[in-house]
Hints:
Number of strands: 0
Order of helices and strands: HHHHHH
Distance between the termini: 62 Å
Largest sheet: none
Number of helices: 6
Helix content: over 70%
Structural class: mainly alpha
Shape: elongated
Amino acid sequence: MLLLILDFVYSSQxxxxxxxxxxxxxxxxxxxxxxxxITFIFFLWAISLNSFxxxxxxxxxxxxxxxxxxxxxxxxxxxxxxxxxxxxxxWQSIIGQLIVLPAPLLxxxxxxxxxxxxxxxxxxxxxxxxxxxxxxxxxxxxxxxFVVFTQYLKNKKSEAEVEV
Length: 164
């Protein structure tokens, strides 16, 4: 039951990312559109493989944490590479890297904790911070729209001052 709820949450986040991609595309922000599209592909990849990985790794609890850490690092690497190639906004890339950076660290910390320490508080960190990281990443997909909207308001305000 919990897996179905988590799959629904991630699916709804993917739908929000698709909406952000469409809005960025309509507003002709190619850098924001590419960021949203890549984020959507990685979310779709995670949603597609989530159940399979948990079934495959139900006895060991090793591969899931390595896979998720690698997935986050691959996203970060691709976003950084495209930023260097000037295909994604620099500010969006930096904020995205800062948001997602704790995720692979949490995955690896959970892996070590689960097999060596079995501390109780790391479970709360893991289950509390990862959804916040994913939600913040989804919100970051909408950030170019806020920039476009504020620029529109500034331009409209400056036109009003010129007309008066």
